[in-house]
Amino acid sequence: MLYVIKFLYSFVLPPGLFIILLLAMSVWLWRRQLKPAIVLLMLTIVLYLSTTGLVSDALVGSLEQRYTPPTSVQGDVIVVLGGGATQGTPDIDGQGNLSGAAGNRLITAVRLYRQTGLPIVFSGGQVFADSGNEADIARRQLIGMGIPSKDVFAENRSLNTEQNAVNTAALLKQKKWSHPVLVTSAFHMPRSVVEFQRAGLAVQPYPTDYWVSQPEAIYAGKFSPSGGAVSSTSTALKEYLGLLVATIKS
């Protein structure tokens, strides 16, 4: 009964509410203007599908499965890509926090450091006027978690994945590192690998921050519209588009 209530509840609030309204409008148009009604119905179906976990998990999962974490790390530096940060928000030893994806990447970098002792380069700048400088925040947090300051390097100018690759390549060349272990979210890894290849770096991918469970299961909740699924679908489509552009440029 609980899952039935959850399923029905998903149609009371956006985006489910908008889908119900659009569906009702399609029915109302059906006997008045058939062609517009069919077009609206098709658009409503596409919108509905893009808001379901069934579609968003399929899109994100197809990206996440392209690389798997290696059984052994072969490199001379750990490179971590940023994924969002807030500024002015309270933290234990200062202000500013990494977002969920960036925080998960940071945790993986710390665990890899404790296994390997390799230096860490965190790449990411201040993308928006009201966001934090990702690399600067990450450096403070890494040091706060016990990583020696001499082993933490901040590349704090990059605003996108292409700049992450180019600016990191320049820093690694300066430090005479040539075999980076690349840490980023699993869905972001395919595009990141291509961008780093374009920048002249052959990386060892170490994906983390997985969003989709394996093996996937199908249940009623996967057919419920949700804002989270919309966000995941948008993220996956952005990655596919970015991957296409990066591949064409290569």
UniProtKB/TrEMBL annotation:
Q: Which GO terms describe its cellular component?
A: plasma membrane
The record's Gene Ontology biological-process terms are:
Gram-negative-bacterium-type cell wall biogenesis; peptidoglycan metabolic process
Keyword annotations from UniProtKB, A to Z: Membrane, Transmembrane, Transmembrane helix
Q: What are the TM regions of this chain, as residue ranges? A: 7-30, 36-60
Residues forming the DUF218 domain are 76-242
Q: Name one Pfam family in it.
A: DUF218
Q: Spell out the CDD domains in the cross-references.
A: YdcF-like (cd06259)
What is this protein called in UniProt?
A: DUF218 domain-containing protein
**Originating species:** Paenibacillus bovis
